[in-house]
Amino acid sequence: MSAESLILFFIVGAFLVGIALLFSSLVPPTSTNSQKAEAYECGIPTEGITWLQFNVGYYLFAIIFLVFDVETVFIFPWAIMMKSMGMTAFIEIIIFFFVLGVGLLYAWKKGALKWE
Amino acid sequence: MLIMRHELLLIAITVILLLVEIFLPGDKKSRVITLAILLMTAVLILGFVPGPSGTLFGGMYQTTALISMLKNILNIGALIVMIQSADWLRKPENKEKISEYYILLLSTLIGMQYMLSSGDFLMFYLGLELATIPLAALAAFERFKEKSAEAGVKFIFSSALSSGILLYGLSMIYGTTGTLYFAEVGPAFTGTPLQVLGFIFFFAGMAFKISLVPFHLWTADVYEGAPVNISSYLSVVSKGAAAFILTILLFTVFSKIALMWSNVLYIIIILTITMGNLFAIRQQNLKRFLAFSSIAQAGFILLGIIGQSQYGMTTVIYFVLVYIFSNLGAFGVVSIISNRTGCETINDYDGLYRTNPRLAMMMMLSLFSLAGIPPVAGFFGKFFLFAAAANHGLYILVLIAIINTIISLYYYLLVIKAMFLNRSDRPIPKFKSDFYTSLGLILCLAGIFAVGIASTIFEAINGLSFGLY
């Protein structure tokens, strides 16, 4: 591959995307109505201003939830490999739980689990 | 397990500090400082015990005697930063966050060590992010100071952008070679246009981290806003780690396009050294001043890389070691004076020698070392770097670098002139420094002299490093 082919690649790429956008704006029938302007399948229409401050607690809970979400992802492959790896795998997952537990304990102690 | 000893030790002390933070009652929090420093000292000493080399996780993690030594150098820098922070952490507004400070600092160190030990671009990227994200939190550590929060935001935005560029480059490298393992990318990296494009993106991402011109714009603002000790950590340990891994990657993975990257480096070195120096002359705030001086120093570090030989790599490592001591010495003095009096501009330092002669002497020696004046280590560091570039036949580049050294001498001497010759109506009052501040500065002072005089250090590094040919 040479520099010319790289430039050609960029030109063809840009051209293809442009064509696709052009056709999708020219070809399909257009109709607008109030139902179509609504947010797609996202519940009821909003009331008032949506730019308001959320309680930071939501984020804290989400982050702590994420920790355990990832933990489950780790446990599944571990459970499959447990039989063949034996004691080593068991000790390793205990260490992993311990570190996670310390993290949770820290969040708990600092009041991240309290809803105010 | 012994192969990964450096990281495991650091993780262990991080968990210990977290447990201490959980179970220690609130009024004894300041004892964490001593505990953290003692633990880190133990890790540093254990790190020097020779251990096995090898690879783990199917080649994703690797360590050699050279990488262990680089980790030890980073440990030294981190330990000195931890000691120097003690004075600042004792202030009443920081008392609640002492353990968090050390935990975040150690997390970044763990990230850097994983980055150095990576045998795979994925691992490299994970380490890089682990090193970067806690640093953003540390830069914004003084939450209620607007400048500090601004520094944190600027740091996280610029590093997110640079990480994005770097990842884009990695995706191109992966797309053209079909693998992310360093050992397999190297032979497959023959320099097709797409690979070169990938390399340029990768290099731009790394240049952000090392703050090379033209990717340096975040540096001065972040250094100015962040707490002084974090600025010193950013300028020394973080920059050193990025420079080390860049050297290793350029010499191994990208060795087949050495002709291309040495041309890129050639231009970047001239730009970085010149711009860093010219902007440093105009700075009044000492933190901004040291930020631009550290940009110029980063340009000097690249001089060793462009040498492309074993000797060149040795000089890079040696210079970073010297730079750790000299820059931490200068930042240490700035941090003490900033903590005690809040003064940060050069004019505030007028007549410092009359009131605090020891601090002024320390600052003078550090600046001499940064400028490269003979009796101190900085001279040898710079001399070897120039020699490495000259051995490769780059005489014009060395000439430009030497001219820049003379320019840098001017602005370093401006600070020294302010301290020793200028008189001031309101000089910085005399104050006594406590144990940790003195210890931090004495360590830097010892380093500035010992590293320069003991040639065994240079020989030891030279025995482990490798070159391109």
Account of the 3D structure:
The complex is a heterodimer of chains A (116) and B (469). Chain A has 116 residues and is mostly helical. Chain A is built from three helices and no strands. Chain A has helices spanning 3-26, 56-85, 87-109. The radius of gyration of chain A is 26 Å and the shape is flat. Chain A starts with a helix and ends in a 7-residue tail after the last helix. In chain A, 0% of the residues are buried. With 469 residues, chain B is mostly helical. Chain B has one domain (5-464). Chain B has helices at 5-23, 31-48, 65-89, 98-116, 121-139, 146-177, 182-188, 193-210, 217-225, 228-252, 258-281, 286-307, 310-341, 352-355, 357-371, 377-391, 395-420, 435-453, 455-464, and strands at 54-56, 61-63. The chains are: A mainly alpha (116), B mainly alpha (469). At the A-B interface, helix 1 and helix 3 of A face helix 1 and helix 8 of B.
